[in-house]
Specification:
By secondary structure, the protein is an alpha+beta fold. It is about 35% helix and about 30% strand. Helix 2 crosses helix 7 and helix 4 runs antiparallel to helix 6.
Length: about 260
């Protein structure tokens, strides 16, 4: 409650934050756990600051094709293949983020280039050496290797949002796409942006049940809702199904770009 908050985790980790003084103390029993708790705490606080500035994280992959000033936003649940697709798009696109690009109320995408967290086996198959990478171990997700987004391509400058796509797993094993209705795209943005499913916004740090905290939460929720609504009205809406082959999915995105450029 109020400006001070202490969070105790079941494994002994603790976060003691004093917002009035701008001080935070984090302790844990192991270095790996300390890194995880600090990482999630910082993402929660930074994300809240962006929310209050009118730019909201979306759980998805954001990129644009070189030479274009229009951004693509692919919203998808965990496990559909954001990181695998990002690796397949290496050197072919400019990235906003593989995890949580920022979407502004005026329909612009901004980079939030946190490192990719990739399983060592996938990283090795993509030509990277996982042994020289910094590791992030999370209680629920195991150990991942961290790869700077710049190693995959150029960080994209702020760009107008041109395409919003709801991405799911293919039902027949082949990548395919179609134009999407406003309702299904809006529902996807409700999950990935307004509610923030998949985005690091830890409830123990983000939610505060005093008057100031609730007022801030209402302000953030309303801003996210307005941003999502404007996005589906200003951008082209697609429904995409990805196969198990990231290279085939990347080729399909290029085909979509060509067809959209022709007005199809």
């Amino acid at each position: 409650m109020g400006a001070r908050r202490r969070v105790d985790y079941v494994d002994g980790a603790r976060v003691e934050a004093d917002r009035a003084k701008g001080r935070t103390r984090i302790t844990a029993r192991t270095l790996e756990r300390l890194y995880e708790v600090a990482y999630l705490y910082l993402l929660s606080r930074v994300g809240e600051a962006y929310d209050l500035s009118g730019r909201h994280r979306v759980h998805g992959l954001g990129f644009r094709f070189p030479g274009e000033d229009r951004g693509w936003l692919l919203v998808m649940d965990s496990g559909v293949g954001k990181s695998r697709l990002a690796l397949a798009l290496r050197g072919k696109v400019e990235f906003f983020s593989d995890e949580s690009p920022l979407l502004g109320s005026r329909g612009r995408l901004t980079a939030f280039p946190i490192r990719l967290a990739i399983a060592p086996s996938l990283l090795r198959r993509s030509g990277f050496d996982p042994e020289i990478r910094r590791k992030l171990t999370r209680l629920s997700y195991g150990t991942k290797c961290l790869v700077p987004l710049r190693e995959l391509g150029v960080i994209a400058p702020p760009s107008r949002l041109a395409v919003v796509a709801k991405v799911t797993r293919s039902s027949n094993g082949r990548p395919q796409w179609r134009k999407a209705q406003r309702t299904e795209t809006f529902v996807a943005l409700l999950r990935c942006c307004v509610v923030g499913i998949g985005v690091a916004q830890m409830a123990e740090h983000f939610l505060r049940l005093d008057f100031v905290g609730l007022s801030r939460l209402v302000r953030i929720g309303w801003s996210r809702l307005v941003t999502a609504r404007r996005a589906i009205h200003s951008a082209r809406r697609l429904a995409i199904e990805f196969s198990e082959d990231p290279a085939a999915n990347a080729r399909m995105l290029e085909e979509i770009r060509v067809r959209l450029a022709k007005g199809l």
